[in-house]
Amino acid sequence: MDAAAASLVHGDAAPLAVAGAAASAAAARGSFAAYRGELAAQSRRAQRADLAAWTTYLTSAKVANAACAWEEDPACWRGATWGLVAGFVRWQLNAGYAVATVGRRLATVKRYVELAAQAGTVAADELQLVRAVRAPSGKRARNLDAQRETTRRGRKKAQPTTITRVQARQLKRDQPATPQGRRDTLLLCLLLDHGLRVSEVCDLPATAINLQRGTMTFYRRKVDTTQTHRLSMDSLASAKAYLAHDAPAAGKLLRGSRQGGTLTGGISIQGVRERVKTLGARVGIVGLSPHDLRHYWATLASRSAVLWQRPLHPGCCRTHPGSRHGRLGEASAKPRWLLW
After folding, report:
1. Cβ neighbours of residue 277 under 8 Å, at least 6 residues apart?
2. What is the pLDDT of residues 257-285, one digit of tens each?
3. Any idea where the domains of the chain sit in the sequence?
4. Which of 37, 149, 222, 335 is the most exposed place for a label (fewest CB within 10 A)?
5. Residue 315: pLDDT above 60?
């Protein structure tokens, strides 16, 4: 036993209860910062937006000091009750927000109430009542939406755009033999044939593709795992063309492009979104997004007979009914395009 531990046990510095109370107070003061420090940047941005909606709700209810440092100061949550939280849910539904948005915002508020309870600014019995507040889901959500005039705000689509196999082939094979066209072909193949998220496409390093082995190794930041996929025939062919003529020697694999088609720098998330939308319009698909291409891939995978016994990876196409990407069942073989 070291000297510090011995002093706590034998009481020459402070009784254990006093030391424990001091430790809890110190942990409470840093609990918000510690929690946010563990979140990805995208999650922090999403929570900031959720708490901005919470502020707007409190302001509309004429609550004093509604504009508080909700992400940083546990004292802001003093006085938060289950009634206020339940009112936040009703306010959003009445304002026409999507049920999924309501649920996500509720989860954020409940998490900060939990942290505030640990800090001693929300009573334990109130915390239990807050935890019991639920957003509509499943059949209840469908029944509620059937009675609401507005069920979604903003530009996000309620359902992904459907893509046929013919359209998918057009997208992959109808690009011109130019630097931008070769880049676009590889981009579309990675989204359609491998289901990469837009962030994963943008994160790909120049060394991600091994032509000799016909594989691609990449990091999925959302689930914190690295995977290796066997490239599809289209992906391999497009990778060979792009790597031979246009790819950078180092840095990001996929280059950005200027209005005239000149490749430069690395492609951004917004750049991918805009490019996919433009290319989709050329084959008659209005409002096409990278997520639509990922949904196309997941739909084909869910119907395939070559799925492995476990999910592709944690967080992707979860094996439960109602997933927006379909339901990935169990089968006897590992996917041909996935290496572990």
Report:
1. 287, 288, 289
2. 998 889 999 999 999 999 999 999 999 99
3. 16-147, 165-339
4. 149
5. no
Instruction: Name the residue with tokens 């291409």.
Output: 293
Cβ 137 vs Cβ 321: under 8 Å: no
Which two structure tokens, joined as six digits, stand for 154? 């903003």
Residue (of 209, 199, 332) closest to 268 by Cα position: 199
Q: Is the pLDDT of residue 127 over 90?
A: yes
Please answer whether residues 210 and 243 qualify as being in contact, where contact means their C-beta atoms are separated by less than 8 angstroms. Answer: no
Residues 6 or more apart from 253 whose CB is under 8 A from it? 204, 205, 206, 208, 209, 247
CA dihedral 276, 277, 279, 285 (to 10 degrees): 120
What gap in Å lies between CA 340 and CA 338, rounded to an integer? Answer: 7
- Please check whether residue 203 is in contact with residue 219, taking contact to mean a CB–CB distance below 8 angstroms: yes
pTM over 0.70: no
Give per-residue pLDDT as tens, 51-73: 999 999 999 999 988 999 999 99
Domain 165-339 belongs to what topology? hpI Integrase; Chain A (1.10.443)
